[in-house]
Design a protein that fits this description.
Blueprint: H1 3-10, H2 16-27, H3 30-34, H4 37-43, H5 48-57, H6 63-81, H7 97-117, H8 121-132, E1 136-141, H9 144-158, E2 163-164, H10 169-177, E3 183-188, H11 195-206, E4 210-215, H12 221-224, E5 228-231, H13 244-264, H14 266-281
Helix pairs in contact: 2-5, 4-5, 7-13, 8-13, 9-13, 10-11
Amino acid sequence: MSIQSTIEAAASTLTPSLARIALVVRENPSVVIDNTINELAAECDTSVASVVRFCRAIGFSGYAPLRMALAAELGKEAAQFSARGAYGSEISDADTLQEAVSKVAALELLAIEETVARLDFTVLEAAVDAIDGAERIILYGLGASRFVAEDLAHKLLRVGRNAHIPADPHEAVAVSVLPTASTVAIGFSHSGSTLETVRFLETARTSGATTIAVTSAKDSPLTRAADHPLFTEVRESTFRAGAMVSRIAQLTLVDCLFLGVAKRRYAETVDALQRTGQATRALRG
């Protein structure tokens, strides 16, 4: 995982003083390179000791190793994206629409690349095995994560799999508590701490279902409730409420899961897609 993605994923679990540092670094990673540890502490309204704790929280022994590693990462990314004219600081009010769109596109491309590069294929294979052998697949997420859950459910239904999305948190817990044989429960949450989604996955696991999590947070309640956790690598834009980059990364994992399931029964999948496509073609006008 890149340093910036690590900070993004860890932000929600940090103490207030460390979270302030994370916020400043996420908005402008160059602040670490351009400032001494004392200057960064002052800018974040915290202590030097807190900056050291922040470094350790994201896997570094101190400030100097973080500066060196982040400088290398930013240099690599600047070279990678400079040709596209999209790499740089966060989206700002001064950006033109074209500049803002280019920055979002760069972040989304980076999210796809980092998510696939860091993907644990052993876990992915286990998740595909579970879905392929399931008699019932329950998917749940809230907000933008619900749209991602719906996308996977739609794909699975198109190839004849019994996929279901509960309508609300109460229904999610109700259906997940039923001890139906060969059930797989899949929870989607970028933060990994959405209470309703965590409760859904915990209940399903307690009831004997195989559980899969799609999240960016490795140390999170959702991850701990999952038999097979799959992780996105994401750096969200300023407009996090729109869940733009995180949604794209989650959809990447959805496509990986679906491709894995589809390949297990290749001929059957192709036939199902052709038949369902023909059945709906007449409705398109």
